[in-house]
Amino acid sequence: MDQAAPGRRRRVHSDEFKAQAVQAAQQPGVSMAAVAMAHGINANLLRRWVHERAQPPIDAVTISEKPVGFIAFPMPAPPAPGAEPIRVEVRRGSTTIALTWPASAADACAAWMRELLR
């Protein structure tokens, strides 16, 4: 087990402090980094607290004894015969993204590309 550097101790935050920070971070339009800085904590720590609060404790999860029936999911229509899919390859530095998009959803592909290239 690693030991902390001599003279350094981990800070312990109360549940009330954590709840206040998480509540502040979940407000619309608020930067999690700004909330963390305002509370004097690391943004990664605040993200972990937010994630932990979103997950129910394992002992609180209720598993139903009833079997789940059939659930129908809508399936996309098959591509029209002869319609070639859209193939895109984007390179930025050492990162390459290659994807295939159905031609029937060209508008969605264009919107995705606009967001990616911002």
How would you portray this structure in words?
This protein is an alpha+beta fold. Among the domains are: 15-58; 86-116, no CATH class. The chain has helices at residues 15-25, 32-39, 43-54, 106-116; strands spanning 86-92, 95-101. A two-stranded antiparallel ribbon has the order 1-2. It is extended and about 70 Å long. The protein starts with 14 loop residues before the first helix and ends with a helix.
Short description, anyone?
The protein contains four helices and two strands; from the N terminus they run αααββα. The longest helix has 12 residues, at 43-54.
Strand-helix topology:
Elements: H1 15-25, H2 32-39, H3 43-54, E1 86-92, E2 95-101, H4 106-116
Antiparallel strand pairs: 1-2
Task: Give structural attributes.
4 helices, two-stranded antiparallel sheet, alpha+beta, extended
- What is the H-and-E element order? HHHEEH
Percent in strands:
5-15%
Strand order of the largest sheet: 1-2
Can you tell me the overall shape? extended
Radius of gyration: 23 Å
Cα distance spanning the termini: 45 Å
The proportion of residues forming helix, as a percent range, comes to 25-40%
